[in-house]
Amino acid sequence: MPQEFEKIKRFIAVFSVAPSPEGPGDDACLLSKKRGRLCLTTDATIEGIHFCRKHFSLGDIGHKALAANLSDLAAMGAAADFWLCALGLPSGFGMRGLKALAEGMLPLAQRHGLRLVGGNITASPVLSLTLSLGGWASKPLLRSTARPGDKLYVIGSLGEAAAGLFAMQHALRVPKRFLQAQRRPKPWLEAAQAAAPYARAAIDVSDGMLQDLGHICQASGIGARLEASALPIPAALKRCFPKQALRFALCGGEDYALLLAIPPQKAKVVEQQWRAQSCPFTCVGNFINSKGIWLDGRRVSAQGFQH
Amino acid sequence: MPQEFEKIKRFIAVFSVAPSPEGPGDDACLLSKKRGRLCLTTDATIEGIHFCRKHFSLGDIGHKALAANLSDLAAMGAAADFWLCALGLPSGFGMRGLKALAEGMLPLAQRHGLRLVGGNITASPVLSLTLSLGGWASKPLLRSTARPGDKLYVIGSLGEAAAGLFAMQHALRVPKRFLQAQRRPKPWLEAAQAAAPYARAAIDVSDGMLQDLGHICQASGIGARLEASALPIPAALKRCFPKQALRFALCGGEDYALLLAIPPQKAKVVEQQWRAQSCPFTCVGNFINSKGIWLDGRRVSAQGFQH
After folding, report:
1. A137 reaches B (C-beta below 8 A)
2. In this predicted model, what pLDDT tens digit does every residue of B224-252 receive, in sequence order?
3. Partner-chain contact A43 B120, CB within 8 Å
4. CB-based contact (8 Å) between A196 and chain B?
5. What does R_g of chain A's alpha carbons equal in angstroms?
6. Residue A101 burial (C-beta neighbours within 10 Å; 0-12, 13-18, 19+)
7. Which chain B residues are closer than 8 Å to A33 by Cβ?
8. pLDDT at A303 exceeding the cut of 80
9. Alpha helices in chain B (DSSP H)
10. ipTM exceeding 0.85?
11. Does residue A51 surpass a pLDDT of 60?
12. How far apart are CA B187 and CA B76, in angstroms?
């Protein structure tokens, strides 16, 4: 790929990167250690699987790829620190496209203090973005440590991303916020970090609320009880899709909401923190000693979301 | 991707991975810090661009993807510690393929003490492997710190990987070692770590010896002088390709040999270390005050290697 170095230059020019060796420019980057444990995640976003360019601008694609990875750090209670960006570019993908992609990532990277420290650009049959993010967690939030009696909180709302995808697939006119939820999800790092000292477990909702809640329940060896009426399903979603809203919220995925297990005696202090952040939080149920997930008293299966 | 979890299980079953949170199984992994600076690299290997399955077994593909990333850590003087593996699998790529891919990676991962700590599996139009590796460097080796007078050493040999590729492309019968050099390159981590306390700069030869040497020269603001007769070009390569051997060695790429700048007064102690490791090393020239690369007294341009 003769233009590889030019393309790397163009991409990183959008970000304010440190010179080598803290930033790109050597065989690998070198970073100083920070407080807490090193927290790492990687995730790929591939054209035709995770997005199509008909419905997603390059800026949307960049934003969403970074948001999905940031959401994984949020779910660990980690503070974001650095990222590596491996791009696969189809033939004809030029400098302007690269700039648009990077500009979609920039606001999130800035907001969360993410330093671009390395990456890779290669030719590829389709556009692909494989990001690796790192951060530091002083009080990590695992999936396996929820306990019966913990309250189950949702940060953010549920169902809009799935509604946006449904609207794209069926060429429906829907409120723009559903499309935005699908294209520009918001990762909840500050909310997770505020809760981390008190919370017992967390996960982000990428595959669907029931499925991801199921991961916490399984890893912790317990179950959960939900109330449908408590779920943070936006009124616009219930109006627009009265029959499907609950399914979108429970099984839709890609909301990148956060689920947290909070001991009841800590609920008040955590809620105060979230209120101070103007963070949308909802208590939707609690964890229980018996296995399985129960919605309004009925057992439900953790159906997943397929991209 | 409904089988995603099954595929992840199958892949990681080949490795002995730590349970979550040090290994896969949560939203991200959590690692303890070690001595030195954190060293990170990422690299993608994509079907049709970096390999074709006609000439590479799945084991070869796995090995080479991991070796290329390990070689970047070697070039930093880092000790390998952990890796994240993001795989894109085309439809029909089943459990046996996944096992073969992992088994190609296993010996290298074991040999270099690499812990699989996370990853991602997704559908993809072609097979792709995007790995992110991390290690720790107590005395990092940069590109930018070579000085005039430093001796230029090559670890490993040059040209065989290019000869192997040429033979594949032109359906030539060649000694098996050329094909092995192309399919199963060897990263030189121990040699680099042994040299790290004394060496001034390093890079690995992925794009071609002249081009990669050019990166050191440019980053360090100096030049280099080479002797063609000193280059570690295997006799079999000279016999088989008498006219092309030198070009393969200088411009071929993918050898994953290491180039190191060693101050003359440290050469003896470093050579002793390499001898103790039975590591193939060659002094091929030295760095000079004036810019440019000179081969047998003639200036040469740092032509690159295009995949």
Report:
1. yes
2. 999 999 999 999 999 999 999 999 999 99
3. yes
4. no
5. 20
6. buried
7. 33, 37-38
8. no
9. 4-13, 58-75, 95-111, 160-169, 176-183, 189-195, 209-220, 235-240, 245-251, 267-276
10. yes
11. yes
12. 12
| Predicted pLDDT of residue A5 | 84
* pLDDT tens sequence across A52-65: 999 999 999 999 99
Interchain proximity B42–A120, CB inside 8 Å: yes
Specify the pairing of strand A223-226 against strand A292-295. Answer: parallel
Q: What dihedral do alpha carbons A1, A10, A25, B207 form, nearest 10°?
A: 10
Tokens of A4: 């590889």
Can you tell me whether residue B266 is helix, strand or coil? Answer: helix
CA distance B80 to B69: 10
CA–CA dist B253, B205 (Å, integer): 6
- Binary contact (A28, B75; C-beta < 8 A): yes
B211 token code pair:
């081009």
Taking each helix axis as running N to C, give the angle between helix A176-183 and helix A58-75, from 0 to 180 degrees, rounded to the nearest 10. Answer: 70
Q: Report angle CA B194, B198, B200 to the nearest 5 degrees.
A: 115
Best mutation target among A130, A213, A251, A303 (most B Cβ atoms within 10 Å) is: A130
Mean pLDDT score, B92-112: 96
The model's pLDDT over A191-234, given as tens digits with 9 standing for 90+, comes to 999 999 999 999 999 999 999 999 999 999 999 999 999 999 99
Amino acid (one-letter) located at A203 = I
| pLDDT score at B62 | 98
Residue A63 contacts residue A105 (beta carbons within 8 Å):
yes
Percent of chain A beyond pLDDT 90? 94
Across the beta sheet with A258-262, what order do the strands follow? A201-204, A258-262, A151-155, A281-288, A223-226, A292-295, A298-300
Which two structure tokens, joined as six digits, stand for A18? Answer: 């440190």
Please state the length of chain B: 307
Res. A2 pLDDT band, cuts 50 70 90:
low
- Whether the CB of B18 is below 8 Å from some CB of chain A: the reply is no
Average pLDDT for B54-80:
98
Per DSSP, the three-state class of B78 is coil
Among all residues of chain B, which has the CA nearest to that of A88? B44
All residues at 6 or more sequence positions from B37 whose CB lies less than 8 Å from its CB, including other chains: A30, A31, A32, A33, B136, B137, B138, B140
Two structure tokens written together for A57: 């601008």
User: Which among A38, A71, A130 has CB closest to B33?
Assistant: A38
| CA geometry: angle B174, B176, B178, nearest 5 deg | 75
Q: How confident is the model at residue B302 (pLDDT cuts 50, 70, 90)?
A: low
Q: pLDDT tens digit string along A5-44? A: 899 999 999 998 998 999 999 999 999 999 999 999 999 9
Mean pLDDT taken over chain B:
95
Sign of the alpha-carbon dihedral angle for B189, B190, B192, B197: positive
Say whether B132 and A84 touch across the interface (CB within 8 A).
yes
